[in-house]
Protein backbone atom coordinates (compact mmCIF):
# COMPACT_ATOMS: atom_id res chain seq x y z
CA UNK A 1 0.00 0.00 0.00
CA UNK A 2 1.64 3.22 -1.14
CA UNK A 3 0.53 6.35 0.62
CA UNK A 4 0.99 10.08 0.31
CA UNK A 5 1.25 12.49 3.19
CA UNK A 6 -0.46 15.82 3.47
CA UNK A 7 -3.01 17.31 5.83
CA UNK A 8 -4.33 13.75 5.98
CA UNK A 9 -3.15 10.31 4.87
CA UNK A 10 -4.32 9.26 1.42
CA UNK A 11 -4.11 6.22 -0.80
CA UNK A 12 -4.62 6.79 -4.51
CA UNK A 13 -6.36 10.06 -3.73
CA UNK A 14 -8.67 8.46 -1.16
CA UNK A 15 -8.33 9.43 2.48
CA UNK A 16 -7.11 6.68 4.76
CA UNK A 17 -9.59 6.30 7.61
CA UNK A 18 -8.87 5.09 11.13
CA UNK A 19 -11.33 3.24 13.36
CA UNK A 20 -11.14 2.20 17.01
CA UNK A 21 -12.42 -0.89 18.76
CA UNK A 22 -12.48 -0.01 22.45
CA UNK A 23 -13.65 3.40 23.77
CA UNK A 24 -11.32 3.56 26.76
CA UNK A 25 -8.59 5.97 27.83
CA UNK A 26 -6.06 4.85 25.21
CA UNK A 27 -8.52 4.75 22.31
CA UNK A 28 -10.17 8.10 23.02
CA UNK A 29 -6.86 9.85 23.73
CA UNK A 30 -5.28 8.55 20.52
CA UNK A 31 -8.41 9.43 18.53
CA UNK A 32 -8.24 13.01 19.79
CA UNK A 33 -4.54 13.14 18.93
CA UNK A 34 -5.03 11.71 15.45
CA UNK A 35 -7.74 14.25 14.59
CA UNK A 36 -5.52 16.99 16.04
CA UNK A 37 -2.94 15.89 13.46
CA UNK A 38 -5.43 16.03 10.60
CA UNK A 39 -6.08 12.29 10.38
CA UNK A 40 -9.63 11.25 9.55
CA UNK A 41 -11.50 8.94 11.89
CA UNK A 42 -14.37 6.65 11.08
CA UNK A 43 -15.40 6.14 14.68
CA UNK A 44 -15.73 3.71 17.58
CA UNK A 45 -17.07 0.23 18.16
CA UNK A 46 -17.31 -1.08 21.72
CA UNK A 47 -18.99 -3.46 24.11
CA UNK A 48 -20.83 -0.78 26.11
CA UNK A 49 -23.11 1.37 23.99
CA UNK A 50 -23.10 4.40 26.32
CA UNK A 51 -19.30 4.78 26.53
CA UNK A 52 -18.91 4.04 22.82
CA UNK A 53 -21.40 6.78 21.90
CA UNK A 54 -19.60 9.18 24.27
CA UNK A 55 -16.26 8.34 22.63
CA UNK A 56 -17.71 8.95 19.17
CA UNK A 57 -19.32 12.22 20.21
CA UNK A 58 -16.22 13.65 21.92
CA UNK A 59 -14.05 12.82 18.90
CA UNK A 60 -16.69 14.02 16.40
CA UNK A 61 -16.76 10.61 14.77
CA UNK A 62 -19.30 7.84 14.24
CA UNK A 63 -20.77 5.31 16.65
CA UNK A 64 -20.85 1.76 15.31
CA UNK A 65 -23.01 -0.99 16.77
CA UNK A 66 -22.01 -3.38 14.01
CA UNK A 67 -18.47 -4.73 13.70
CA UNK A 68 -18.75 -5.35 9.96
CA UNK A 69 -19.63 -1.70 9.30
CA UNK A 70 -16.56 -0.26 11.03
CA UNK A 71 -14.38 -2.81 9.20
CA UNK A 72 -15.82 -1.84 5.83
CA UNK A 73 -15.49 1.89 6.46
CA UNK A 74 -11.97 1.83 7.98
CA UNK A 75 -8.57 1.18 6.43
CA UNK A 76 -6.74 0.86 9.75
CA UNK A 77 -8.38 -0.51 12.89
CA UNK A 78 -6.88 0.03 16.33
CA UNK A 79 -7.86 -2.44 19.04
CA UNK A 80 -7.61 -0.42 22.25
CA UNK A 81 -9.20 -2.89 24.65
CA UNK A 82 -7.69 -4.61 27.73
CA UNK A 83 -5.10 -7.24 26.79
CA UNK A 84 -7.30 -10.24 27.58
CA UNK A 85 -9.96 -9.05 25.13
CA UNK A 86 -7.68 -8.70 22.10
CA UNK A 87 -7.73 -12.36 21.11
CA UNK A 88 -11.54 -12.35 21.35
CA UNK A 89 -11.74 -9.34 19.03
CA UNK A 90 -9.26 -11.03 16.68
CA UNK A 91 -11.55 -14.03 16.27
CA UNK A 92 -14.57 -11.81 15.63
CA UNK A 93 -12.70 -9.76 13.02
CA UNK A 94 -11.48 -12.86 11.21
CA UNK A 95 -15.04 -13.75 10.19
CA UNK A 96 -14.90 -10.90 7.66
CA UNK A 97 -12.83 -10.12 4.57
CA UNK A 98 -9.83 -8.16 5.87
CA UNK A 99 -7.87 -7.80 2.63
CA UNK A 100 -6.26 -4.33 2.33
CA UNK A 101 -6.96 -3.72 6.03
CA UNK A 102 -4.41 -3.13 8.77
CA UNK A 103 -5.32 -4.36 12.25
CA UNK A 104 -3.29 -3.00 15.17
CA UNK A 105 -3.44 -3.49 18.90
CA UNK A 106 -1.85 -1.09 21.39
CA UNK A 107 -0.66 -3.58 24.00
CA UNK A 108 3.00 -3.37 24.93
CA UNK A 109 3.09 -6.90 26.36
CA UNK A 110 1.63 -8.82 23.42
CA UNK A 111 3.12 -9.36 19.98
CA UNK A 112 1.24 -8.85 16.75
CA UNK A 113 0.84 -12.63 16.42
CA UNK A 114 -2.13 -12.54 18.78
CA UNK A 115 -3.94 -11.22 15.70
CA UNK A 116 -3.14 -14.35 13.70
CA UNK A 117 -6.78 -15.02 12.83
CA UNK A 118 -7.11 -11.54 11.33
CA UNK A 119 -3.93 -12.19 9.37
CA UNK A 120 -5.41 -15.40 7.97
CA UNK A 121 -8.38 -13.34 6.81
CA UNK A 122 -6.11 -11.05 4.79
CA UNK A 123 -5.10 -8.29 7.20
CA UNK A 124 -1.67 -6.85 7.88
CA UNK A 125 -1.21 -7.08 11.65
CA UNK A 126 0.75 -4.87 14.05
CA UNK A 127 1.43 -4.07 17.64
CA UNK A 128 1.72 -0.28 17.91
CA UNK A 129 2.46 0.80 21.44
CA UNK A 130 2.51 4.45 22.56
CA UNK A 131 5.05 4.76 25.37
CA UNK A 132 2.86 6.78 27.71
CA UNK A 133 0.71 6.21 30.80
CA UNK A 134 -2.84 7.08 29.79
CA UNK A 135 -4.65 7.94 33.02
CA UNK A 136 -7.61 9.76 31.46
CA UNK A 137 -9.49 10.09 28.18
CA UNK A 138 -8.80 13.80 27.71
CA UNK A 139 -5.01 13.50 27.67
CA UNK A 140 -3.22 16.80 27.04
CA UNK A 141 -2.42 16.77 23.32
CA UNK A 142 0.82 18.70 23.92
CA UNK A 143 2.05 15.83 26.10
CA UNK A 144 1.44 13.39 23.26
CA UNK A 145 3.59 15.45 20.89
CA UNK A 146 6.76 14.12 22.51
CA UNK A 147 5.91 10.46 23.09
CA UNK A 148 7.60 7.60 21.27
CA UNK A 149 5.75 4.80 19.52
CA UNK A 150 7.13 1.29 19.11
CA UNK A 151 5.99 -0.78 16.15
CA UNK A 152 6.10 -4.54 15.67
CA UNK A 153 4.74 -6.28 12.60
CA UNK A 154 5.37 -6.23 8.85
CA UNK A 155 7.39 -3.05 8.48
CA UNK A 156 9.88 -4.04 5.77
CA UNK A 157 7.79 -2.24 3.17
CA UNK A 158 8.43 1.48 3.64
CA UNK A 159 5.00 2.25 2.18
CA UNK A 160 2.92 0.33 4.72
CA UNK A 161 0.00 2.36 5.97
CA UNK A 162 0.88 2.20 9.66
CA UNK A 163 4.41 3.51 9.08
CA UNK A 164 2.99 6.47 7.18
CA UNK A 165 0.41 6.99 9.89
CA UNK A 166 3.03 7.23 12.63
CA UNK A 167 5.32 9.35 10.45
CA UNK A 168 2.47 11.73 9.70
CA UNK A 169 2.04 12.30 13.44
CA UNK A 170 5.58 13.65 13.66
CA UNK A 171 6.37 11.46 16.69
CA UNK A 172 9.56 9.45 16.95
CA UNK A 173 9.20 5.68 16.70
CA UNK A 174 11.28 2.54 16.60
CA UNK A 175 10.79 -0.97 15.29
CA UNK A 176 10.90 -3.95 17.65
CA UNK A 177 11.03 -7.65 16.91
CA UNK A 178 8.21 -10.15 17.35
CA UNK A 179 10.10 -12.09 20.05
CA UNK A 180 10.93 -9.06 22.23
CA UNK A 181 7.50 -8.18 23.62
CA UNK A 182 8.16 -9.42 27.16
CA UNK A 183 11.52 -7.66 27.39
CA UNK A 184 10.07 -4.48 25.90
CA UNK A 185 7.11 -4.48 28.26
CA UNK A 186 9.40 -5.15 31.23
CA UNK A 187 11.34 -1.97 30.42
CA UNK A 188 8.11 0.01 30.39
CA UNK A 189 6.89 -1.51 33.67
CA UNK A 190 10.19 -0.74 35.42
CA UNK A 191 10.16 2.95 34.52
CA UNK A 192 6.41 3.43 34.92
CA UNK A 193 4.52 1.09 37.25
CA UNK A 194 7.45 0.09 39.47
CA UNK A 195 8.67 3.68 39.66
CA UNK A 196 5.19 4.67 40.82
CA UNK A 197 5.48 2.00 43.52
CA UNK A 198 8.92 3.29 44.51
CA UNK A 199 7.62 6.86 44.79
CA UNK A 200 4.73 5.57 46.93
CA UNK A 201 7.22 3.94 49.29
CA UNK A 202 9.33 7.09 49.45
CA UNK A 203 6.39 9.36 50.22
CA UNK A 204 5.15 6.92 52.87
CA UNK A 205 8.12 7.91 55.03
CA UNK A 206 7.24 11.59 54.60
CA UNK A 207 3.66 10.81 55.64
CA UNK A 208 5.07 9.32 58.85
CA UNK A 209 6.38 12.83 59.56
CA UNK A 210 2.82 14.13 59.38
CA UNK A 211 2.56 15.25 55.76
CA UNK A 212 -0.58 14.48 53.81
CA UNK A 213 -0.21 12.39 50.66
CA UNK A 214 -0.75 15.49 48.53
CA UNK A 215 1.87 17.50 50.42
CA UNK A 216 4.33 14.59 50.26
CA UNK A 217 3.88 14.32 46.49
CA UNK A 218 4.25 18.07 45.98
CA UNK A 219 7.36 18.07 48.20
CA UNK A 220 9.14 15.43 46.10
CA UNK A 221 7.88 16.70 42.74
CA UNK A 222 10.73 19.20 42.08
CA UNK A 223 13.26 16.56 43.15
CA UNK A 224 11.86 13.94 40.79
CA UNK A 225 11.39 16.42 37.97
CA UNK A 226 14.95 17.72 38.40
CA UNK A 227 16.35 14.19 38.28
CA UNK A 228 14.47 13.33 35.10
CA UNK A 229 15.62 16.58 33.48
CA UNK A 230 19.23 15.91 34.43
CA UNK A 231 19.10 12.32 33.15
CA UNK A 232 17.61 13.43 29.83
CA UNK A 233 20.37 16.02 29.40
CA UNK A 234 23.41 14.24 30.86
CA UNK A 235 22.59 10.55 31.19
CA UNK A 236 22.53 8.39 34.31
CA UNK A 237 26.18 8.37 35.33
CA UNK A 238 26.63 12.14 35.24
CA UNK A 239 23.35 12.73 37.09
CA UNK A 240 24.41 10.84 40.21
CA UNK A 241 23.94 12.53 43.60
CA UNK A 242 23.48 11.36 47.18
CA UNK A 243 25.31 9.35 49.86
CA UNK A 244 26.23 6.36 47.67
CA UNK A 245 28.03 8.67 45.25
CA UNK A 246 29.82 10.51 48.05
CA UNK A 247 30.67 7.34 49.96
CA UNK A 248 28.82 8.52 53.07
CA UNK A 249 28.67 5.42 55.24
CA UNK A 250 26.88 6.95 58.25
CA UNK A 251 23.64 8.06 56.54
CA UNK A 252 23.36 4.72 54.71
CA UNK A 253 23.76 2.87 58.02
CA UNK A 254 21.09 5.08 59.56
CA UNK A 255 18.77 4.47 56.63
CA UNK A 256 19.05 0.73 57.18
CA UNK A 257 18.25 1.21 60.87
CA UNK A 258 14.94 2.99 60.20
CA UNK A 259 13.84 1.16 57.05
CA UNK A 260 10.81 -1.08 57.33
CA UNK A 261 11.83 -4.69 57.00
CA UNK A 262 9.88 -5.15 53.76
CA UNK A 263 11.81 -2.28 52.13
CA UNK A 264 15.36 -3.23 53.16
CA UNK A 265 16.12 -5.63 50.32
CA UNK A 266 14.78 -3.18 47.74
CA UNK A 267 16.94 -0.39 49.22
CA UNK A 268 20.03 -2.58 49.06
CA UNK A 269 19.43 -3.73 45.49
CA UNK A 270 18.86 -0.20 44.20
CA UNK A 271 21.83 1.18 46.13
CA UNK A 272 24.11 -1.54 44.77
CA UNK A 273 23.06 -0.57 41.27
CA UNK A 274 23.95 3.03 42.13
CA UNK A 275 27.38 1.81 43.22
CA UNK A 276 27.82 0.25 39.79
CA UNK A 277 27.10 3.64 38.23
CA UNK A 278 29.48 5.32 40.68
CA UNK A 279 32.21 2.90 39.66
CA UNK A 280 31.78 3.92 36.03
CA UNK A 281 31.82 7.59 36.96
CA UNK A 282 35.01 7.28 39.00
CA UNK A 283 36.87 4.82 36.79
CA UNK A 284 39.84 6.62 35.25
CA UNK A 285 39.10 5.04 31.91
CA UNK A 286 35.46 6.15 31.78
CA UNK A 287 34.98 9.28 33.89
CA UNK A 288 35.40 11.62 30.91
CA UNK A 289 33.03 9.64 28.68
CA UNK A 290 29.30 10.07 28.19
CA UNK A 291 26.81 7.26 28.90
CA UNK A 292 26.64 6.17 25.24
CA UNK A 293 30.41 5.76 25.09
CA UNK A 294 30.44 3.88 28.39
CA UNK A 295 27.72 1.56 27.15
CA UNK A 296 29.72 0.89 23.98
CA UNK A 297 32.81 0.07 26.03
CA UNK A 298 30.85 -2.28 28.28
CA UNK A 299 29.54 -4.17 25.24
CA UNK A 300 32.91 -4.32 23.48
CA UNK A 301 34.80 -7.32 24.82
CA UNK A 302 38.03 -6.22 23.13
CA UNK A 303 38.26 -3.23 25.49
CA UNK A 304 39.45 -4.04 29.01
CA UNK A 305 36.88 -1.88 30.75
CA UNK A 306 33.53 -3.25 31.91
CA UNK A 307 31.24 -3.00 34.88
CA UNK A 308 32.91 -5.85 36.74
CA UNK A 309 36.34 -4.30 36.40
CA UNK A 310 35.00 -0.86 37.24
CA UNK A 311 33.39 -1.98 40.51
CA UNK A 312 36.58 -3.86 41.48
CA UNK A 313 38.64 -0.73 40.82
CA UNK A 314 36.26 1.33 42.94
CA UNK A 315 36.51 -1.15 45.84
CA UNK A 316 40.31 -1.18 45.62
CA UNK A 317 40.64 2.60 45.43
CA UNK A 318 37.97 3.72 47.89
CA UNK A 319 37.69 2.24 51.39
CA UNK A 320 34.44 4.09 52.07
CA UNK A 321 32.79 2.72 48.94
CA UNK A 322 34.12 -0.76 49.77
CA UNK A 323 32.50 -0.47 53.20
CA UNK A 324 29.20 0.64 51.68
CA UNK A 325 29.39 -2.29 49.25
CA UNK A 326 29.80 -4.67 52.19
CA UNK A 327 26.99 -3.06 54.20
CA UNK A 328 24.65 -3.45 51.24
CA UNK A 329 25.46 -7.13 50.91
CA UNK A 330 27.73 -6.86 47.91
CA UNK A 331 30.55 -8.69 49.75
CA UNK A 332 30.28 -11.90 51.76
Automatic annotation (TrEMBL):
Domain Putative oxidoreductase/dehydrogenase Rossmann-like stretches: 16-130
Top-level taxon of the source organism: Bacteria
Segments forming domain DUF2520: 147-272
Signal peptide: none
Pfam families found in the cross-reference section: DUF2520 (PF10728), Rossmann-like (PF10727)
InterPro entries: 6-PGluconate_DH-like_C_sf, DUF2520, NAD(P)-bd_dom_sf, OxRdtase/DH_put_Rossmann_dom, TM1727-like_C_sf
Protein name per UniProt: Predicted oxidoreductase, contains short-chain dehydrogenase (SDR) and DUF2520 domains
The species this protein was found in: Clostridium uliginosum
Amino acid sequence: MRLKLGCCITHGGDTIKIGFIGPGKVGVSLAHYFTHKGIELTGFYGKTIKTTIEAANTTKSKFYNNLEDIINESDILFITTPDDIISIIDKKLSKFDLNNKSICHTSGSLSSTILSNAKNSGALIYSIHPIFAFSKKDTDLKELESIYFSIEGKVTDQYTDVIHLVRSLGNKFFIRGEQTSSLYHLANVFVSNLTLSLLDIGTSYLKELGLSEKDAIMAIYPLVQGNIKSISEKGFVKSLTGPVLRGDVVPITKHLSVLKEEHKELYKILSLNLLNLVSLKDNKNTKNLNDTQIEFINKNESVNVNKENAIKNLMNNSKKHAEIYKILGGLE
